[in-house]
Write a structure and sequence with these properties.
Chain C: Its EC number is 7.1.1.-. The complex is a heterotrimer. Chain A is an all-alpha fold. Chain A has 28 helices and two strands. Chain B is mainly alpha-helical. The chains are: A mainly alpha, B mainly alpha, C mainly alpha. Chains in contact: A-B, A-C.
Chain lengths: 665, 510, 102
């Protein structure tokens, strides 16, 4: 089966093509095409994984392009790492496909949605299977395209259109760095193949400065894709896309591609201590900043988005501190529980009629049992509570930050872990406990500055009846299943994926649990020279648990028990609160520093182009014509004037002849 | 017939011209289909040539030389042939022209003349790519000017007179410079061979310049001046900053089909001429001025992109993006590496398809909405989903999305410029990094335009616009498919180009 | 013996008068007449050189006959054009005919 690994991305591609050409005839049935494609991919992935566990790395390539003496090949390869990734991607993608069947069924363009999902799954799987880093880059860009298309799926909303553009452009900045890194790497090693690159690195064929530069440029790509500081700004806005998309692309798979990239290029990073330090600090800073912003957001999806950024920061931090397995392990567990949380959020949003503000929710525990329980499992997992998946992977990250990093990194990781537990349970308590606040007021927070600050888009989407003449495709949910219905549990299409993911969020951690002998680690590092993997001692596990418990307890006290006022911190430090609500004003800074000056330079050049560059051209043209016109004035059509001029001219010629020949002298 | 294939290909459109001239001008449908058939036959001929083209063989193929006429000691030959450089461009020409003829079925004004000029143009363009005699090359080069002048001047937009005259005079100036340079080269080579030999053949000229009997004649100054003059002549056509200002005018005013050919093929003649004559005959001088060319390339990329960023008219945005993309060609050839040179040729071909598609989409949208102002458009995905989808695909191809042809050329050009030897371009890395900013800017202006045209709420006035007609699918699918094919499997192109590229680059020993 | 300079002076004076007439008179008939005057001044020169010039021979006089013939033809054609012009544009005033202007 391992030879047929190429089938894995092909099934979704076929689904995409079918939906592209025949989708409009299939309507809602389009969902089943997508589900079938992904189902087959998942089955093949499982078979490939089992075969790979007992087998060898399999590679197959064909010639892609030749120039001079160099040849670039393309194909596929099954290594331990990508065998694991295949499972993660196909599984999450499959459950998201199933979930969307219900979530998107109001939408007239559901077949388009499924075709995009198919294209995305194809690209992501292609990325994972790539045998060389150029092919990875190609699919890397394709997943970016799919992200663009899916974020902008509701393109008629200006916010969605803007968010799609922002997502593509911001990641593009990182991608250019990555491309340059790859180009320089190619010129140094003459190949894009992982094996040859690592061989060149090991043999010291690349000098240290260049190596660091290459590693940092490649890391730029990861920073863009995995939404690391300072390029993280696109991910929260990308929440304008449909929620299943957020779960699949902006939580579980695509954004993790940056981490995956650092993972597959790991020997290169290991060879450059400077690059490793930059990676570690970027991860730590991102984890911390994103977590602080997650503390104050009130849009359920944005809280999860910042949480995603923060968790990706954790993974990067782990990789930066030599925790190769820790980072990739967390990638896997995070994919499961974050997809779970997003789908749970989607389930909630669907039930409360496309509202996303947690201040409009509450009391859903009794109304949506399955969603609530699975969401709780997800929250516990991300907080790092024993024995759920997040506990094992987070503990390893803390271990590598402590053992290979420095005190600062470890402290930041601990504080972030605390905040993670706090904001997740803030979200949980606000959403599922207390009284339901989404009653019959239509526009509950229209004048609330906090809502405006974090994008009135979400509120507008939820509550404003849209202009129906223009927007016929998406029937406003209010009309569809009644605006004043009480929220209730959704159908099996939505709860089944939650249950699957919840079970994984419980058990996934055991694959690398110390008492089972670090099975995943043994699998991932075979044949790789990534150094010894750090393992923490028992006290670290307890510390981690204590921190998580502290965060949960604080959230419980504030949002469930009410022992501490909800605005306790906000009123103590209003300045900090405002800074956080406004996301450190980074968007504004970027607009002022990059966007406006670029446009201004463009305008300046355009004026210059019109007035000077083209001005000179037109000036030459005009002066030629002007000269001609002034001479033509002499041509008045009077024969006698012409005669006089020619005679005078003749006389002048004669006179000149005399003067020059000297007849008078 | 096989040995005369190229001649058949080049002059076949003229047979079509004669046939069309015999049809009464009222029978527009007959004329349209005949024009499509003629160009289709040319396309098939070019594909047969493509199929018969031997890969991995260096030197010329399908070459013929016949004495044409002589004046005194001047011998003019009809010398044609193709190599890996001209082969893809030949196919590009027939494809883009055929598809643009399909795209022009909506034209109702003076239909007969339109197709006559288009077919004459086709002969001219094909002739440029096969001619190996400098005099013949010049004739064909000039032959493309007049039809394009009429295509813009008769079927153009509001300022068509200004645009067509500017096109004619500006590129005519380029031709004049080229002609003078050819004459200079002729006499210098005559002198260099001790008045023993006269030639207009590019092949022989290259040999003479490489190994003259009397080296005193061809000093560095003389060769440098000749190279720079050639560079200016072709830079106008490509176009290279600061000789680019005719292009936005011409594009904005030209009818859709003419824009497609203009961007798709005519600009490529500049790049082709530069490689064939500039680099082919004077490789040492090309290497000497490589830094200058690379810097101009970067200026083109950044300057074109910045200007595209602030355009309010969709078509002029695409026009400036052409300028930006042609910078990649300069960057690639300046690097003097196989990858860079191949990237440049890839870019010529790929931009031919992509820009033709973009111009077609802009034209199709303009035909329906009657506006090209970006701020007046919006929500087209709703009113014309198919057109908007192709527009988006074209924009993505232009951005250089992997899987589409633009990416391959950018990748190769960047590998080239970063791998350029220090002796040819001293600050290659800096140049490459600055050029990379252009990639971001390209994404910025195209996505900005897409966000405002295809995305967003649908405008009331665009409700009920007709979506793509069956005839419009031909150019759309054709061009996009080609871009995808090259993007997914560039080997199809690279195995034709590679040997020639190695030959060109090896002349400088790099 | 009359010196040749006298013939030449007479011819020059006649030529200048003719030229003046051609360049200044507005009536086309007078312009034509002035052209005749210029031609005749040339005839005087030709005849004079033919008789007493440094290389005197008969061809000068033969040339004069040609000139007279051409002048006659020219007068005929000129007057014909003049009449056609008058019929077309109702005027033979030189100033009013500026068709040479582009």
């Amino acid at each position: 089966m391992i030879q047929n690994a190429w089938l894995i991305p092909v099934f979704p591609l076929i689904a995409f093509l079918i939906l592209l050409f025949f989708g409009r005839f299939l309507k809602e049935k389009a969902a089943y095409v997508g589900i079938a494609g992904l189902g087959l991919s998942f089955i093949v992935s499982v078979m490939v994984l089992f075969e790979r566990i007992g087998g060898e790395t399999y590679t197959y390539v064909i010639e892609w392009i030749t120039f001079g003496e160099s040849t670039i090949t393309m194909g596929y390869e099954v290594t331990p790492l990508n065998a694991m990734m295949l499972i993660v991607v196909t599984l999450v993608s499959l459950v998201v496909h199933i979930f969307s069947r219900e979530y998107m069924h109001d939408d007239k363009r559901i077949h388009v949605f499924y075709s995009y999902l198919g294209l995305f799954s194809f690209s992501m799987l292609g990325l994972v299977l790539a045998p060389n880093v150029l092919q990875l880059f190609i699919f890397w860009e394709l997943v970016g395209l799919c992200s663009f298309l899916l974020v902008g799926f509701w393109y008629f909303k200006p916010e969605a259109a803007a968010a799609a553009k922002k997502a593509f452009l911001t990641t593009r900045i990182g991608d250019v760095g990555l491309l340059l890194g790859l180009v320089i790497l190619f010129n140094q090693t003459g190949s894009f193949d992982y094996g040859e690159i690592f061989a060149a690195v090991e043999n010291g064929l690349i000098n240290d400065t260049l190596l660091t530069a290459i590693a940092l440029l490649i890391f730029m790509g990861a920073v863009g894709k995995s939404a690391q500081f300072p390029l993280h700004v696109w991910l929260p806005d990308a929440m304008e896309g449909p929620t299943p998309v957020s779960a699949l692309i902006h939580a579980a798979t695509m954004v993790a591609a940056g981490v995956y990239l650092v993972g597959v290029m790991y020997p290169l990073f290991l060879a450059s201590p400077t690059a490793m330090t930059v990676v570690a600090y970027t991860g730590a800073i991102t984890a911390f900043f994103a977590a602080t912003m997650a503390l104050v957001m009130t849009d359920i999806k944005r809280v999860l988005a910042y949480s995603t950024i923060s968790q990706l920061g954790f993974m990067i931090l782990a990789l930066g501190t030599a925790g190769y397995v820790a980072g990739l392990f967390h990638l896997m567990t995070h994919a499961f529980f974050k997809a779970l949380l997003f789908l749970g959020a989607g389930s909630v949003i669907y039930a409360v009629h496309h509202r996303q503000d947690i201040r409009d929710m509450g009391g859903l525990w009794g109304k949506m049992k399955i969603t609530a329980v699975t969401f709780l499992i997800g929250s516990l997992a991300i907080a790092g509570v024993f024995p759920l998946a997040g506990f094992w992977s987070k503990e390893e990250i803390l271990a590598s930050a402590l053992l290979n990093g420095d005190g600062f990194l470890f402290a930041i990781a601990l504080v972030t872990a605390f905040m993670t537990a706090f904001y997740m349970f803030r979200l949980f308590f606000k959403t599922f406990t207390g009284e339901y606040r989404g009653g019959d007021h239509d526009d509950p927070h229209a004048n609330d500055p906090g809502v405006e600050a974090q994008g009135a888009a979400s509120v507008a989407e939820a509550d404003n009846p849209r202009d129906d003449s223009v927007d016929q495709d998406r029937v406003p949910p209010a009309e569809d299943h009644g605006h004043h219905d009480a929220p209730k549990e959704n159908s099996g299409f939505m709860t089944f994926p939650l249950i699957v993911l919840a079970s994984l969020a419980v058990v996934a951690g055991f694959v690398n649990a110390p008492f089972l002998g670090h099975q995943l680690e043994g699998f991932l590092i075979q044949g790789l020279n990534v150094g010894a993997q750090p393992h923490g001692e028992l006290w670290l596990a307890f510390l981690s648990l204590a921190v998580a418990g502290g965060g949960i307890a604080l959230a419980w006290a504030m949002y469930y028990k009410g022992a501490i006022a909800e605005d306790f911190f906000a009123s103590k430090a209003p300045g900090v609160h405002k800074l956080l609500i406004n996301k450190y004003y980074l968007d504004e800074v970027y607009v002022a520093v990059f966007v406006r000056p670029t446009v201004a330079i463009g305008r300046f050049f355009w004026e210059m182009d019109k007035s000077i560059v083209d001005g000179i051209v037109n000036l030459i043209g005009r002066s030629t014509r002007g000269t001609g016109r002034s001479f033509s004035r002499g041509h008045n059509g009077q024969l006698q004037t012409y005669g006089l001029v020619s005679i005078l001219g003749g006389l002048v010629v004669i006179a000149l002849a005399f003067v020059i020949r000297g007849y008078f002298g | 017939m096989m040995e005369n294939m190229l001649t058949w290909l080049v002059f076949m459109p003229l047979i079509g011209v004669v046939l069309i001239l015999m049809i009464p001008k009222e029978n527009v449908n007959v004329i349209r289909s005949l024009a499509a058939i003629i160009s289709g036959v040319a396309l098939i001929l070019s594909l047969i040539i493509w199929g018969g083209f031997e890969r991995g063989v260096s030197g010329l193929q399908y070459a013929t030389t016949t004495e044409w006429f002589n004046i005194g000691f001047l011998q003019f030959n009809y010398e044609i042939g193709i190599d890996g450089l001209s082969m893809p461009l030949l196919v590009l020409t027939t494809i883009v022209t055929t598809l643009s003829i399909f795209a022009s079925f909506s034209i109702v004004k003076r239909v007969k003349e339109f197709y006559v000029w288009t077919l004459v143009l086709l002969t001219g363009m094909l002739g440029v790519f096969v001619a190996l005699d400098m005099f013949l090359f010049f004739l064909f080069f000039e032959l493309t000017l007049i039809p394009m002048f009429f295509l813009i001047g008769i079927w153009g937009g509001k300022m068509k007179e200004y645009a067509s005259f500017k096109f004619l005079v500006y590129t005519g100036l380029g031709s004049a410079i080229m002609f003078m340079t050819f004459i200079a080269m002729f006499f210098k080579s005559y002198e260099a061979m001790n008045m023993q030999e006269t030639t207009f053949s590019m092949i022989r000229m290259a040999e003479i310049f490489a190994d003259p009997a009397n080296p005193e004649v061809l000093t560095g100054t003389v060769k440098g001046a000749i190279f720079l003059a050639l560079f200016v002549a072709f830079a106008i056509k490509l176009p290279v900053f600061p000789f680019h200002t005719w292009l936005p005018n011409a594009h904005v005013e030209a009818p859709t089909a003419a824009s497609m050919i203009l961007a798709g093929v005519l600009l490529k003649m500049g790049g082709y001429g530069l490689i064939r004559l500039g680099f082919g005959i004077l490789p040492d001088q090309a290497a000497r001025f490589a830094t200058l060319i690379a810097i101009l390339g970067v200026i083109n990329i950044i300057y074109g992109a910045l200007l595209a960023l602030v355009q309010t008219d969709l078509k002029s945005l695409v026009a400036y993006s052409s300028i930006s993309h042609m910078g990649i060609v300069l960057l690639g050839i300046a690097s003097f590496t196989t990858s860079g040179m191949q990237g440049a040729i890839f870019q010529l071909v790929s931009h031919g398809f992509i820009s033709a598609l973009l111009f077609f989409m802009v034209g199709a949208i303009y035909e329906r909405t009657k506006t090209r102002t970006i701020s007046e458009l919006g929500g087209l995905s709703k009113s014309v989903p198919v057109l908007a989808g192709f527009m988006l695909a074209a924009a993505m191809a232009s951005v250089g999305l992997p899987g589409l042809s633009g990416f391959v050329s950018e990748l190769l050009a960047f590998i080239g410029i970063f791998g350029a030897s220090e002796s040819i371009i001293p600050a290659a890395t800096t140049i490459g990094v600055i050029a990379a900013i252009g990639i971001i800017l390209t994404a910025a202006y195209l996505l900005w335009a897409m966000q405002r045209t295809t995305f967003g709420p649908m405008k009331e006035k665009f409700i009920g616009l007709p979506d793509a007609r069956p005839m419009e699918y031909v150019p759309m699918i054709g061009l996009l498919a080609l871009s995808i094919i090259i993007g997914v499997y560039p080997h199809i192109l690279s195995d034709v180009i590679n040997t020639t590229v190695i030959d060109i680059v090896s002349k400088i020993g790099g | 013996m009359v010196p040749i300079s006298l013939f030449l002076s007479l011819a020059a004076i006649l030529f200048c008068i003719g030229l003046y007439g051609v360049l200044t008179r507005r009536h086309l008939v007078i312009v034509l007449a002035s052209i005749e005057l210029m031609l005749n001044s040339v005839n005087i020169n030709l005849v004079a050189f033919s008789a007493i010039g440094p290389f005197a021979n008969i061809s000068g006089q033969v040339f004069t006959l040609f000139v007279i013939t051409v002048a006659a033809a020219e007068a005929a054609v000129g007057l014909a054009i003049l009449i056609a012009l008058y019929r077309n544009r109702n005027s033979i005033d030189v100033i009013k005919h500026d068709l040479l202007r582009w």
